[in-house]
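Quick check before the chapter quiz. The format below is the same one you will see on the exam, so make sure you can read both the input and the output lines.
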Amino acid sequence: MGQTYGYIRVSTREQNEQRQLLALRERQVREGNIYTDKQSGKDFCRPEYQRLLGKLEAGDVLLVKSIDRLGRNYGEILEQWRMLTKEKGVDIVVLDMPLLDTRRGKDLMGTFLSDIVLQVLSFVAENERANIRQRQAEGIAAAKARGVRFGRPPRPLPENFGEMHGKWKRGEITCTAAAKACGMPLSSFRYRAGLLEKNAEN
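Here is the expected output.
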């Protein structure tokens, strides 16, 4: 008889894993066999998941609460599932989806149904991740439109910036010399000069 393991994932350290933990305890998974990651499901480069892979052997059973706890990348979920079940000989049980229990229906029809359900759910998990990214992008764009600034505030300009900028524009000194006199990298001097000129036009 193999051992039973549980895997828990929450996206951030602020999220609570208790719901997943209780579900695994109800299935009598030993505390020492439960592995928890607190990070994004975009890939499988997670320390506890990698530790779990090192423990799993043929005949073991891996329990997860739902497919999106395993991951959110469609292609990688399918690859991990194939590797665990086909190469390692591990059974996987998704508690929220009884059809995704590789211990049952090991005949051709059972495997076929399981593969279809897995592909659909994996796609849904990744699609939700894409929707989250889209909502974040839209939220940032809306905030910028309202004048909300992101990132660090720009450094204050050197006191002699206006003077050096004027000399450069009049052709009295080169841009490189003006940037050096201001103690600024050339690229920064050009960038800030461009902003200054744009603001003057407005």
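If your answer matched, good. The chain has two domains: 4-134, 161-201.
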